[in-house]
């Protein structure tokens, strides 16, 4: 699976973002997002912008659900069918939004996704011992919830730092490394 994690402030501006792949089931940690249509300019690396677009498009649903559901972890809130992407959300009491876009590996071989043509790596992405591809399964929800709680704890420690300007981007390499380690641990 490929993951795009972002933290948005109450004004919908990104404070932190990270793209990573799965480490479960022998994954290599590299994100392999696929888009429904190739770019007209021939650029194959449009996934970064597409991921941001998908996440920001789900903010309307987040704003609706946050008033209905009193929990901080809102679970799976949105789906983007053309890429089979799913969005999970975690809200802080200060209305910071932690959004995780997760996309299962492509099932059809394509030249832009070398993992899908390699039978050895396609065996690595099977769901026998890792997080399954079903975003609403209890195992997936629990893994994402644990990841979000761990990142929330890291974020709280970072915000309490007197040298951090509230609402600004988090540029700490330590924070990025610890979020990545949490992703390796849970996802």
Fold and architecture overview:
It is a single chain. The N and C termini lie close together (9 Å). Helix 5 runs antiparallel to helix 6 (173-186). The chain is globular. A five-stranded antiparallel sheet has the order 2-1-5-4-3, with helices on both faces. It has helices spanning 47-57, 59-68, 114-117, 119-124, 138-159, 173-186, and strands at residues 2-8, 14-21, 73-80, 85-91, 97-103. It is an alpha+beta fold and 187 residues long.
The level of helicity is 25-40%
Bulk shape: globular
CA-to-CA gap between the ends?
9 Å
Q: Biggest sheet, strands in spatial order?
A: 2-1-5-4-3
Arithmetic mean pLDDT: 77
Low-confidence segments, given as residue ranges, are 108-130
The major β-sheet equals: 5 strands, antiparallel
Strand content: 15-25%
Number of strand elements: 5
Which class best fits the helix and strand makeup? alpha+beta
Evaluate the radius of gyration. Answer: 16 Å
Figure out the total of helices. Answer: 6
Write the element-wise H/E pattern from the N-terminal end onward. Answer: EEHHEEEHHHH
């Amino acid at each position: 699976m490929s993951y795009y994690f972002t933290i948005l402030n109450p004004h919908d501006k990104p404070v932190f973002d990270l793209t990573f792949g799965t480490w479960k089931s022998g994954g290599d940690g590299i994100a392999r997002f696929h888009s429904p249509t190739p770019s007209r300019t021939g650029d194959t690396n449009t996934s970064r912008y597409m991921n941001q677009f998908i996440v920001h498009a789900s903010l309307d649903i987040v704003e609706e659900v946050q008033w209905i559901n009193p929990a901080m972890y809102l679970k799976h809130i949105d789906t983007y069918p053309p890429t089979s992407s799913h969005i999970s959300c975690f809200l802080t009491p200060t209305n910071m939004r932690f959004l995780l876009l997760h996309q299962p590996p492509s099932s059809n071989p394509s030249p832009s996704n070398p993992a899908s043509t390699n039978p050895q790596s396609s065996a690595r992405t099977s769901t026998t011992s890792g997080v399954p591809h079903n975003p609403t399964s209890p195992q997936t929800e629990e893994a994402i919830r644990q990841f979000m709680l761990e990142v929330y704890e890291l974020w709280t420690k970072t915000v309490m730092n007197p040298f951090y300007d509230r609402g600004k981007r988090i540029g700490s390499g330590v924070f990025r490394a610890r979020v990545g380690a949490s992703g390796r641990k849970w996802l």
